[in-house]
C-alpha cells in the first residue's frame, strides 16, 4: 500500500537527521530511509565538531569532549602548538550522538526507517515515488557516493580523500589537551594523520588523496616510536570517502535535492563536513517547507545560491594533492608564514598573534572568573 509523505529523506546521518527534525517541526510529514541497521551503526567519521557548529546547534555536552589546542608534528617530529583564545573542537561519542539526533527527529514527528536501502526512484509532476513511498519532495543526504544523485542524474562527487581510523581504549600517554596532527606525505599523501583524545577513547587515523592510500601500519609504527603506546586495544575501525572536489555541479531537479556530503559540501582542505551537513540539512528543510507550503523560492535555486564556493580551498587542495616531499614539510612547517597558514586553517582568523598554548593556559589561571574551565584542561 502506498504511503504518502511531504518529504522523503534518504540518509539518516548529520544532514538527513538535521533536515528531518527541522522539517517535521515545520509541520511536514517526513520519512527518513537509511540502509544501516540502526542510527549508531557503521560510523564512518572521526566526528570532530568545530566550535561554529557547536555554537549553532544545541548538541548534548555529555556526548562530547572539548579539545582546545592543536599540536602539529612535522615528519621529523618537531611540533608546533596552536590555539586561539575562546576556541575549541569537540570530540564526540559518535554512535551516541547519532542515536540522540535520531531520537530528536522522531520526537519532532519524523518517521525513521533503518535497514532500508534506496536503490531507485521516479520523479513525476507532483513528487517522487520510491517504491511504495511517495513524497512531494526528496532530499538525498546519502553521503559521498550518493545513490540518489546517480538515480536522478544529478551532480556526483568525483574527487575524494580516503580516510581510515581505529578507535581504541584511552591511551594515557596522549596529552588530552590537543588534537595531535601529523603532516607526513609518505603516510598520508595529500592530507594528514591524527590522534584524537576522544570521549572515553583515543582515535588514531589518517587520510590520503585518492588514488593514493593511507598507511595506517606506518602511522602506528611512527607513533609507537615516540609515544608510550605499545599496548593499543582496538575497539572499532572506521573508514570512508571524503569528497574533496567541492560542491557538485547540479544540486537538484524539480522534486529532488542533494545536501551534505552527497552535494560535496565538505571543506576541500580540512575534509570537515559535519558543520555544513548540519547547517545545510536544516536549511534544506526550511526551503522545502517554504516551497511546498507557501510557494516560496525553489529549494534548488536557493541552495545553489547559498552553497559554499570553496574557491581558495580548492586551489589549496590542488597543492596538497601534489603531496609535498617530507623534506620540504620539515623545512617549511616551523616558519612564520606556515604557522600563520596553519593557524588560519585550524582556527580561521582567530588568535593570529599566536600566543603559545602554555601562555594561554596561564592566562586562564590568572583570571578568577575563568577558573572553572581549567577543570576541562586537565
Ligand atoms: C574517516 C573520516 C573522518 C572524518 N572526520 C571528520 C571530522 O572529524 N569532522 C568533520 O567535520 N567531518 C569529518 N568527516 C566528514 C564527515 O564525516 C561528513 O562530512 C559528514 O558525515 C557528512 O554527513 P552526511 O549526513 O552528509 O553524510 P554521511 O554522514 O555520510 O551519512 C550518509 C547516510 O546515508 C546512508 N546511506 C548511504 N547510501 C544509502 C542508500 N542507498 N540508501 C539508504 N541510506 C543510505 C548511510 O548509511 C549514512 O547514514 C570525516 C569523514 C571520514 C570518511
List key phrases describing it.
single chain; 378 residues; alpha/beta; FAD/NAD(P)-binding domain; D-Amino Acid Oxidase, Chain A, domain 2; seven-stranded mixed sheet; 12 helices; globular; disordered C terminus; binds flavin-adenine dinucleotide
Helix % is 25-40%
The residue ranges in which pLDDT falls below 50 over 5 or more consecutive positions are 368-378
Q: Class of the largest domain, according to the CATH hierarchy? A: Alpha Beta
* Fraction of residues in β-strands: 15-25%
CATH architecture designation of the largest domain:
3-Layer(bba) Sandwich
Structural class: alpha/beta
Q: Work out the helix count.
A: 12
Gap between N and C termini, in Å? 58 Å
Query: What is the overall pLDDT average?
Result: 92
Overview of the molecule:
The protein has 378 residues and is α/β, with parallel strands linked by helices. The protein folds into two domains: 3-51 and 92-158 and 245-313, FAD/NAD(P)-binding domain; 61-91 and 160-243 and 317-377, D-Amino Acid Oxidase, subunit A, domain 2 (D-Amino Acid Oxidase, Chain A, domain 2), CATH 3.30.9. Helix content is 33%, strand content 24%. The protein has twelve helices and 17 strands. It has helices spanning 14-25, 51-56, 94-108, 147-151, 216-226, 274-294, 299-306, 311-321, 326-332, 336-347, 357-366, 371-377; strands at 3-10, 30-34, 49-50, 64-67, 69-73, 79-82, 89-92, 111-114, 122-124, 127-130, 133-140, 160-168, 178-182, 193-197, 202-209, 234-243, 256-258. Strands 1, 2, 8, 9, 10, 11 and 17 form a seven-stranded mixed β-sheet that branches. The protein has a seven-stranded mixed β-sheet with strand order 6-5-13-14-15-12-16, sandwiched between helices. Helix 1 (14-25) runs parallel beside helix 6 and helix 11 (357-366) packs antiparallel against helix 12 (371-377). The longest helix is centred in the C-terminal third of the chain and has 21 residues, at 274-294. The model is unreliable at 368-378 (pLDDT under 50). The structure holds flavin-adenine dinucleotide. The site of flavin-adenine dinucleotide (FAD) has 38 residues, from helix 1, strand 2, strand 12, strand 16 and helix 6.
Amino acid at each position: 500500500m502506498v504511503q504518502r509523505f511531504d518529504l522523503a529523506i534518504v540518509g539518516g546521518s548529520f544532514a538527513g537527521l538535521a533536515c528531518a527534525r527541522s522539517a517535521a517541526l515545520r509541520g511536514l510529514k517526513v520519512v527518513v530511509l537509511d540502509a544501516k541497521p540502526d542510527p549508531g551503526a557503521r560510523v564512518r567519521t572521526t566526528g570532530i565538531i568545530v566550535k561554529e557548529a557547536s555554537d549553532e546547534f544545541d548538541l548534548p555536552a555529555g556526548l562530547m569532549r572539548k579539545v582546545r589546542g592543536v599540536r602539529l608534528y612535522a615528519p621529523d617530529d618537531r611540533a608546533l602548538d596552536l590555539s586561539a583564545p575562546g576556541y575549541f573542537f569537540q570530540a564526540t561519542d559518535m554512535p551516541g550522538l547519532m542515536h540522540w539526533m535520531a531520537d530528536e527527529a522522531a520526537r519532532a514527528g519524523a518517521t525513521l526507517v533503518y535497514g532500508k536501502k534506496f536503490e531507485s526512484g521516479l520523479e513525476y509532476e507532483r513528487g517522487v515515488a520510491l517504491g511504495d513511498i511517495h513524497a512531494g519532495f526528496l532530499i538525498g543526504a546519502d553521503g559521498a557516493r550518493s545513490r540518489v544523485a546517480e538515480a536522478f542524474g544529478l551532480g556526483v562527487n568525483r574527487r575524494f580523500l580516503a580516510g581510515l581510523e581505529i578507535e581504541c581504549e584511552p591511551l594515557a600517554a596522549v596529552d588530552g589537551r590537543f588534537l595531535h596532527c601529523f603532516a607526513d606525505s609518505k603516510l598520508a599523501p595529500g592530507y594528514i594523520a591524527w590522534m584524537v583524545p576522544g570521549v572515553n577513547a583515543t582515535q588514531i587515523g589518517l587520510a590520503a588523496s585518492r588514488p593514493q592510500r593511507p598507511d595506517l601500519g606506518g602511522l602506528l609504527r611512527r607513533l609507537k616510536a615516540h609515544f608510550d603506546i605499545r599496548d593499543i586495544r582496538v575497539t572499532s575501525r572506521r573508514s570512508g570517502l571524503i569528497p574533496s572536489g567541492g560542491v557538485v555541479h547540479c544540486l537538484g531537479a524539480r522534486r529532488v535535492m542533494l545536501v551534505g556530503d552527497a552535494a560535496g559540501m565538505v571543506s576541500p582542505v580540512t575534509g570537515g563536513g559535519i558543520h555544513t551537513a548540519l547547517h545545510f540539512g536544516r536549511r534544506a528543510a526550511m526551503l522545502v517547507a517554504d516551497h511546498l507550503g507557501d510557494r516560496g523560492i525553489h529549494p534548488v535555486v536557493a541552495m545553489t545560491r547559498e552553497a559554499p564556493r570553496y574557491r581558495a580551498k580548492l586551489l589549496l587542495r590542488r597543492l596538497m594533492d601534489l603531496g609535498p616531499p617530507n623534506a620540504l614539510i620539515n623545512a617549511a612547517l616551523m616558519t612564520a608564514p606556515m604557522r600563520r597558514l596553519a593557524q588560519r586553517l585550524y582556527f580561521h582568523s582567530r588568535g593570529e598573534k599566536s600566543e603559545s598554548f602554555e601562555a594561554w593556559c596561564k592566562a586562564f589561571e590568572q583570571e578568577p572568573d575563568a577558573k572553572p574551565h581549567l577543570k576541562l584542561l586537565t
